[in-house]
Write a structure and sequence with these properties.
Elements: E1 3-8, E2 34-39, E3 46-52, E4 58-65, E5 74-75, E6 100-103, E7 106-111, E8 116-123, E9 126-132, E10 137-138, E11 144-150, E12 155-160, E13 166-173, E14 177-180, E15 186-187, E16 199-200, E17 205-210, E18 216-221, E19 237-244, E20 247-248, E21 253-255, E22 263-268, E23 274-279, E24 283-289
Parallel strand pairs: 5-16
Antiparallel strand pairs: 1-24, 2-3, 3-4, 6-7, 7-8, 8-9, 8-10, 11-12, 12-13, 13-14, 13-15, 17-18, 18-19, 19-20, 19-21, 22-23, 23-24
Keywords: Signal
Organism: Trichoderma harzianum CBS 226.95
InterPro entries: WD40/YVTN_repeat-like_dom_sf (IPR015943)
């Protein structure tokens, strides 16, 4: 598989609006909506659910334990300094995207401190009500940091970013929960030689994503810029595993798109042949993906 990269500008736009108080209340006829984030607490991770009002305002936080523990990556580069001067990663404590994913009435969350993945069912009539399905399952590696789900295949795959770095996949059942698919950890340790917890943000795992047709599974990992103390400069990596039927290959195609160093989030642009890849340095790239993994 070949990648051709085109650099583009990547901007963040913040919008704000002011509405009368009467417009900020819940519409009783509206479909319930919620926003979710992961509280990556080493003493016990949890999902925080927030009610979304009709004007987009968030309210009424509800906390649900994941059944696992969080963990914090280490900040190892001397410049810039750690965000909170503690030596840990700060607000982005996993150096990753998609540590929590919602698909339909399923919610998936990683537990980096206990090396497990949790599955919840969302009550469609009360979207802040989450029910843990089964027990959190081991991810076959260390420090899980990102998860993806294929509704077509009923398969979830998780990216581990610690000493045993790699991908494990699970079948998803609404009653039984998560079941290890094949017992294989698809290693990415040739590109990453990490500790548990990992040190970064350079040379760490970033994101995992199925393509829209669920015929490929993709992972991004960060490289190191020339200015990184103690690390040889390298581009970031993209791993791609073919998926045939419900079988995720154990052999990946590995690419290093030209000019991309701190590969971060992966977003397919509506089709299998185009990816928006963000760079942690604040740049975005459009990657063209050739057919046939």
């Amino acid at each position: 598989m070949l990648f051709f990269s085109l650099a583009t500008c990547w901007l963040t736009l913040s919008l704000a609006s002011s509405l009368p108080d009467s417009e900020s209340k819940r519409d009783t006829n509206a479909v319930p909506r919620a926003a979710y984030f992961l509280d990556n607490d080493p003493s016990g991770a949890s999902i925080v659910s927030l009610d979304i009002l009709t004007n987009g305002t968030l309210s009424n936080p509800v906390r649900t334990l994941t059944g696992g523990k969080g963990s914090w990556a280490k900040w190892i580069i001397p410049s810039p300094a750690p965000p909170d001067n503690t030596g840990f990663a700060g607000p982005d404590s996993l150096f990753s995207a998609n540590s929590i994913v919602v698909s339909g009435n399923f919610l998936f969350a990683v537990n980096a401190g206990s090396n497990t993945l949790s599955l919840f069912k969302i009550d469609p009539s009360n979207t802040q009500h989450l029910t843990l399905v089964g027990k959190p399952v081991g991810t076959l590696g260390d420090f899980p940091i990102s998860v993806t789900y294929s509704e077509k295949l009923h398969i979830a795959c998780v990216l581990n970013g610690g000493t045993r770095a790699g991908v494990a996949c699970f079948s998803v059942d609404a009653s039984r929960g998560l079941v290890v698919l094949d017992g294989s950890l698809r290693s990415i340790t040739p590109a990453l030689n990490q500790t548990t917890p990992p040190g970064g943000p350079i040379l760490t795992a970033s994101d995992i994503m199925f393509n829209p047709s669920s015929t490929g599974l993709f992972v991004s990992t960060k490289g190191a810029p020339p200015s990184s103390a103690g690390a040889s400069p390298t581009l970031g990596f993209i791993y791609a595993w073919p998926v045939v039927g419900k079988t995720v290959s154990t052999t990946a195609t590995i690419s290093q798109p030209s000019g991309v160093i701190l590969d971060f989030s992966l977003t397919f642009l509506g089709a299998d042949d185009s990816i928006l890849l963000t760079d942690a340095a604040g740049v975005g790239y459009i990657l063209s993906v050739s057919s046939g993994l």
